[in-house]
Amino acid sequence: MVKAKKSALVLLMLALALTLALSACGKSDDKEETKKEETTTASTDETKAEDTTKTEPAPAENAAANLKEYKLVFTYPGTPQKDEAVIEEAANKILKEKINATIDLQPIDWTAWEDKVNLLIASREKVDIFFTAQWSKYAVNVGKNAFLDLKPLLEQYGKDITSTLDPVFLDGSKINGINYGVPTDKELAAQGGIVYRKDIADELGIDMSKVKTIADLDAVFATVKAKRPELTPLYLLKGETFDSHYLGNFDALGDTAVPGVILKDSTDTTVKASYDQQRYVDTLKLTRDFFTKGYINSDAATTTTMNTEALKAGNVFAITQSLKPGKAKELETSLGLGGKLEQIELNEKTVSTGETAGSMLAISTTSKDPARAMMFINLLHSDKELNNLLNFGIEGTHYTREGEIITPAAKAADYSPGAAWMFGNQFLNYVFNNEAPDKWDQFRKFNEGPKVSPGLGFVFNSDPVKAEVSAIVNIDRQYQTALETGSVDVDKVLPEYKDKLIKAGVEKIVAEKQKQLNEYLAAK
Amino acid sequence: MAIRSNLRKYGMFYLMMLPGFLILLVNNYLPMAGIVIAFKSMTYQHSNILLNFVDSEWVGLENFKYLFKTSDAWIITRNTLLYNSLFIVLNLIIPVIFAIMLNELRSKFLARFHQSIIFLPYILSWIVVSYLVYGLLHDKNGFVNTTILPAFGVDPVQWYFKVEAWPYIMPLVNTVKNVGYYMVIYMAAIIGIDDEYYEAATIDGANKWQQIMKITIPLLIPVMIIMTLLQIGRIFYADFGLFYQVPKESGPLFPVTNVIDTYVYRTFIAMGDSGLSSAAGLYQSTVGFILVFLSNWFVRRIDKDSALF
Amino acid sequence: MEAPVERAPSKPVNSLSPVGDWTIKIIFFIYSALCIFPILLLVMVSLSNESDVIVHGYKFIPTKIDLSAYKFVFSDWESIARAYGVSAFVTVVGTALSLIVMALYAYPISRPDFPQRKFFTFFVFFTMLFNGGLVPWYLIYVRFLHLKDSIWSLILPLVMSAFFVLIIRTFFSTTIPAAIIESAKIDGAGEMRIFFRIVLPLSTPVLATVALFSTLNYWNDWFLSLVFITTEKNYSLQYVMYKTLTNIQYLTQHSDAIAHIGGATKFPSETVRMAMAVVGIGPIIFAYPFFQKYFVKGLTVGAVKG
Fold first, then answer.
1. Per residue in A419-440, pLDDT tens?
2. Helix, strand or coil for residue A174?
């Protein structure tokens, strides 16, 4: 009897396992179905794209024809755009013809970006191209084997990249001699400062030309606060503060999530934890002073509203930004604040790994067709039509064009991702009418004469201290933002933060970084 | 033969249970197999998660060692246990008092009115509750800082950074949200008490206080035990909504608001560290499991009928 | 079973002294006021003028009533209607599914003559004691069931609740007389027929209770959206409220709405947040009297029947 019962159970379990397997397969199909039915408003592109393949097969003489059609998934940080589906459809026309691929753009909100990327990687979702950068856990994700070694792909499918891109970029983004990301061809030097509301400064009669350092802003913010109490003089949030790498000129040597920095504008090659960098600590104190004076948004430590969005919402006077010539003008267009923004540089122009690895496209190890992904990146670097389409939308709909100069059209707000610096080759971009017509010449001039960080070209390999690094990510989450936004008392909290970091092994990381840097410098 | 007769006789039963069984299998049992992730260091060279899993290196107890090396393990365990213990006590005392008091109100209308209001927070989501708390505690605009504190001449407080305040705020919020639920249960139990007890007590000259202490409370004890036991069984599981939404992810508050559930969530979602997160999850499941058994064993020794299983 | 308050609280002869009665009244008035105050505050702020809020903070009495926050919220009514739709769909389908699946599971394990009763009871009970944790659970849904960003990922995880299954089982085995089932069997009725024609109709009290809890769970859920949902069309109401509270960008990205209120620079972010909350809570408050009545009844059943 007992035996019989057991075997009945086994039988049952088998049957169930089978049904389960079947239902699991069935479900993914169901999902596609429901998805299609549900898409009433947005992104009918998928179905449309499929329709076109059915009706017009690729011409036989086309090089793309011997490739099987493939859908590329491309994810990057940015606010999702209303007309994304329209752009995808237009891009697919170009891509079909050239590489027989279609594109699925998956922008992720700025403040959700890092978390979502972690999830995408941890759950091995099918993504072909990831945006990555030294300030966006490039080295950490490489350590997780999330990105492919690009060398063979670059040689075979990336000819237009290697021929146009300054070798300094590719060299300066290698980890252990291997490229895991294709850097964007853009300005090489970096500078940081603020972007502020020019119209408000004019209205209040503030002379912004006198502002040279962060401390000079005190008087400016005081005036703004006194005369326009409804405004937030300075909007800060996680990663966008006076202590951000672009303002403090801190060179984290490959990944800002990993502690241990040198100063880009100094010749000293001693790696220090940030709490040991005098500039970092001084800036913390200054920020705290601003915070207690009420210049800074009080929810800075917890908000997830990106600073550009806050600026767009209108109650903010200034935000911190990484700058280049015409940055404020670029923002004006993407935020719909024409003629209202201006920028001020607050530090010395530098070049470091932070810039060469400051904006890259990596190919995911989950890509089913890495070659096609590289072909797409290659097109972003060489195909003017495609590049401008993804950046500015469709001519006549989102902008009108005269030669290289474009003007926002009526529907410009429906597609303005402001992501030109992420998509391939920025020198292919059209220039907006509010920008300097010689923008690219200015860029080239900007590239001249920066201070070169002693660590340029070196990217830290965090593998030996992986465990320590991930512990520190958690501690940073607790302290870093609160400190850097001035939300908490520096004298009280900084020692606590330091203590925790030391316990978590920050010194081991710094020592390892120093060791690798020394080896690199010696080899050089 | 026995299989056949069993199937013929109860085949319909198996069919009836099939949907529920499948859901349990997928939603609860398959993940249990996944706890081995806690003993691996996951890397991702393949696009298939199963292959990655197979190829990932076994690291034994490394993830656990690591978890307990940091002060986090201690902090989250302490917070989870202390808060939950406090919640259990508050969810016992206040609702019982409220239920007895409401039951004694002369006006039926008022009793119903107050019951409605006290119960209302229970049906609101944690999102809504976090809005309500935000409205009160926001440091620039919040009602406490703009109106209440100035009235007493106290300087505004940055509540979302004020570590010392949250060990009081959390129990307060939790109690306000849940008191209605327990109160209604205890009221139902009080209504179930036979009026003859009270009549006899009145004849004997017992006053209200004596009636409450000698009749109402003793008769409520079985319900109190069940409600408390149910909560003790979950003492190692914090209410994620309360600890995640209400303090608004404010970093400086982590020492007093980080609990096992939020830690598991953050290590996985924010750090993408599936090994460490799984280790913390397995720690929670295992200790939680032991605690349920211990408390049940304990209750069984005192009163067999009140035990959960 | 009557709701508690619908019966006379105590025998009039044995009622409280007026002083005691007043003390209790005052205590409850204060407590109720404290409960309701934050909600009213939210409503008042949503009706305030943005610049007043920025200068004076959240005030209980607005200096003047300003509806621009609502104008803004409703200029983008499609996305709110959509979120309501998602929440309603998930709640209705989820509750119905959950009820039927749990009752179907509970019935066989309530039957003393079913030999595998113990195994299947343990199978469901064990899920209350032990679980695999977030990581494997997430991976199963995303990688195995491919339910990421699907509305079903908001439904499926909450369908089976071990606790409710056991409650339903207890109700079945204690309140439904075995004799009825026996006689139905003798009349030749199949198990399905017995279940739907006899067991379910006799079990409406417990089913109603479970349905109410289930409704509440589905309606109030935001965690599943937080982990699974990526595109806006699948945002539930709770998730939209969550996004608005932490990230006002969710609203500013709707450029039409911005244009509607006269340009990006006049965006009333503080009051809009609160208006969004009011829009989210409003219907619940209206449904509350009905809801509460049945809820209290249901809880009473639960408490008495165990």
1. 888 998 888 899 888 888 888 8
2. strand
Query: Is the pLDDT reported for residue B127 higher than 60?
Result: yes
Average pLDDT per 10 consecutive residues for chain C, totaling 306 residues: 44 68 92 92 90 83 86 82 94 96 94 90 90 89 88 95 90 87 88 90 88 91 91 90 77 54 59 88 83 74 47
Q: Concatenated DSSP letters for A419-466?
A: -TTTSSBGGG--EETTS-TTHHHHHHHHTSSPEEPTTTT-----GGGH
pTM over 0.90: no
Q: Are B26 and A20 in contact (CB under 8 A)?
A: yes
CA angle A233, A236, A240 (to 5 degrees): 135
Res B165 pLDDT > 90: yes
Are the Cβ atoms of C299 and B181 closer than 8 angstroms?
yes
CA B74 from centroid of its chain's CA atoms: 19
Q: Tell me if A471 and B254 make a contact (CB, 8 A cut-off).
A: no
Structure-token pair, residue A293: 């004076």
Q: What is the mean pLDDT of residues A398-407?
A: 88
Greatest CA span in chain B, whole angstroms?
A: 85
Question: Distance (Å, rounded) from C-alpha A245 to C-alpha A191?
Answer: 10
- Residue B251: its chain A contacts at CB < 8 A? 301-302, 477-482
Share of chain B above pLDDT 90, in %: 42
List b or e across A73-92, with b for residues whose CB sees 16 or more CB atoms inside 10 angstroms. bbbbbbbbbbbbbbbbbbbb
Find which of C231, C244, C249, C272 to mutate to test the A interface (most A CBs within 10 Å of its CB).
Answer: C249
How far apart, in whole angstroms, are the C-alpha atoms of residue A144 and residue A122? 9
Residues 6+ apart with CB under 8 A from A113: A77, A136
Closest CA to A24 of B68, C147, C72, B210: C147
Helix H or strand E encompassing B41: strand B40-41
- Domains, chain C, with CATH or none: 16-76+254-305 (no CATH), 82-222 (1.10.3720.10)
Would you kindly state where each structural domain of chain B is located, as residue ranges? 70-306
Q: With respect to CATH, is domain B70-306 assigned 3.40.50.1100?
A: no
What value of ipTM does the predicted structure carry?
0.88
Asked whether residue A184 carries a pLDDT value surpassing 60, the answer given is yes
Q: Which of B10, B114, B143 sits opposite C60 (nearest CB)?
A: B143
pLDDT at residue A52 in the model? 39
The average pLDDT across B201-224 equals: 89
Is the model's pLDDT at A31 over the cut of 50? no
C263: Cβ contacts below 8 Å, ≥ 6 apart: A314
Domains parsed from chain A with CATH numbers: 50-187+356-390 (3.40.190.10), 191-355+456-523 (3.40.190.10)
Q: Which stretches of chain B are DSSP H helices?
A: 2-24, 30-33, 49-55, 62-69, 72-104, 108-123, 126-137, 143, 149-151, 166-191, 195-203, 208-211, 217-232, 240-245, 254-257, 260-265, 274-302
Mode of pairing for the β-strands spanning A129-132 and A70-77: parallel
Measured between CA atoms, the residue of chain C closest to residue A115 is C227
Two structure tokens written together for A199: 């119209």
The SS3 of residue A320 is: strand
Q: How far is CA C51 from CA A199, C38, C249, C266, C269, in A?
A: 19, 21, 19, 10, 10
A1, A124, A488 ranked by CB distance to B47: nearest: A124
Residue A87: partners with Cβ closer than 8 Å, 6 or more residues away: A81, A105, A389, A390, A393, A394, A415
C219 is written with which tokens?
Answer: 């309606």
For residue A103, give the 3-state DSSP assignment. Answer: strand
| Residues B269-288, mean pLDDT to the nearest whole number | 86
